[in-house]
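Incident log, structure service

09:12 report received: a user says their structure output differs between two submissions of the same chain.
09:20 pulled the input from the user's history:
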Amino acid sequence: MISKENAEHYIWGEKCDGWYLVNRQDMLIIHEKMPPGTQEKRHYHALARQFFFVLEGTLTMELAGEQQEIHARQGIEIPPGAKHQAQNRADSAVEFIVISHPTTRGDRSDLPECEA
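09:34 re-ran on a clean worker, output below:
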């Protein structure tokens, strides 16, 4: 059995949390928590397809220049090559699951902040 209580924990960005639920080359599943006002760097993955599923709160996903609000029990698919950025614009933390196939390890290209 695996949960965020017993999974390997890491901190990303300045104050966001991640827990590895599955960490294999063919699949990566992470439980993440973003406090209010946090965001990741805008980026894309050449090979990995991702699916973000919100557990609690509201996640704003900028995908190919459009803002999408994903609420609890909703998800969004990010195809390979799609430029995207997860953001928490809400007043409370957001928790979500990210499934990546294959892993995103070595398959991430950060974009300049000015690039849309």
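09:41 both user submissions now match this output. Likely a transient worker issue. Closing.
09:42 reviewer note: The mean pLDDT is 95. DSSP finds no helices and eleven strands in the chain.
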